[in-house]
Amino acid sequence: MPSRTAKRKRASVDDPAVLDEIAHAQNEHQLFTAWAKLRGVEINGVEAKSIPGRGVGLVTTKTLKEGDRIIFIPEKAMFQPDATLLKRNHLTAASPQAQLAVSALCAFEKLDSSFFTWQEVLPDENDFKASMPMYWPRELHEFLPPAVKQPLTRQITDYEKDWKAVKELCKRRNFPEERFKYFWMIVNSRSFHWKPPQNKAGIMVMCPFIDYLNHGPTGSGCNVLQNAKGYEVLADRSYEVGEEILATYGAHSNDKLLVHYGFMNVSPTTGSTGADDEIRLDAILLHNLTDAIKDQLQDVGFLGGYSLSPETGEICFKTEVAIRATLLTANEWEYFVSSGEDLSEDRTKEVRGLVKKWLREYRPHVMGLIESVEGEGEQCWGQARELIKARWRQIGDAIDKFEV
Ligand SMILES: C[S@@+](CC[C@H](N)C(=O)[O-])C[C@H]1O[C@@H](n2cnc3c(N)ncnc32)[C@H](O)[C@@H]1O
């Protein structure tokens, strides 16, 4: 039988401790934390705090041991798509993101919304305009590296399809497109996948409080696990008081982090962009490969998807294959494709030498782009311009560091 203390951990509407927290809340984050507890969220030893350059994040208020449960979000505390609304408006076939975004829009924007306290701690449209490429004007998109443009184009296509699906409902309820777009972006940057028990279909949900967790690269985040009752966050190591707790959103490159979350991973001490980052080489390689070689690569599924790790200086296997296609005989090349090894002597140096030559030839283009982002045009969209320049500088640094 669970002990009384264990039972008391979950707050109820008349929990005096939580009511006291509400009465003494000094800011919107403390109020929201108490509100989340009333919805059933369990919080152990962390609080929401401003983190320079990261908005708000979760910081420990006591020492924690590895494996300690820091947060628990029961299913009932999650914000889920509104099945009735979706059915009535024939939106059950819309994308999971559209379903959750339009449900959140309708629930959060109601005059008597019970989500007001949550809304108060979410980023606003201006935050998104400053950081999310989807919000930037098309003229600025032109300056983005190709590896950012690619997921951005996909994101815009997905968004447009979702807007088309919900447009009628939004019109009927007098929600301008900007409000749907805002909730679409909220869902994009802070939702979770939830697989309800009893084999029901998986859905996208929003989880109050857990969505304060900022991202850390692979290996630096706490453990966010799903069980039959909800989501829990466990300490991945021991923590001292005042440390930020991170979660890993995925092993994403800075290109993807920028498009989907509006930031890039950079170590404040070393400037390193971390082991998850990669510099895409497609634009460079595809510019230099002949059409015949491209056809050859296409046949074996190796056309595109080339990358360089800025952390280790390694080039990916696809790049190795593509460059070897220009250097080896058909027999030697096929042997490498199937075994990952050179048939006779090791050609790695030659391969890297050619990559270095092509990277050097591309370098002035990087400089030129940094200068043109700075140059002409109005100086509005300042933060957007800084982000674009920062990514080009990271690409430039990786090129400069590349050794044969
Ligand atoms: C799930 S929310 C995390 C909470 C958020 N910081 C806030 O203030 O509400 C995700 C957003 O947090 C910010 N973020 C997360 N991790 C970050 C990091 N490592 N560096 C900078 N910003 C980060 C980005 O704006 C991202 O879109």
Automatic annotation (TrEMBL):
Coiled coil: none annotated. PROSITE patterns: SET. It comes from the Eukaryota. GO terms for molecular function: protein-lysine N-methyltransferase activity. InterPro entries: SET_dom (IPR001214), SET_dom_sf (IPR046341), SETD3_SETD6_MTase (IPR050600), SETD4_SET (IPR044429). It holds the Pfam family SET. Residues 44-250 form the SET domain. PANTHER family: SET DOMAIN-CONTAINING PROTEIN, UNCHARACTERIZED PUTATIVE METHYLTRANSFERASE. This is SET domain-containing protein. It comes from Extremus antarcticus. The lineage of its organism: Eukaryota, Fungi, Dikarya, Ascomycota, Pezizomycotina.
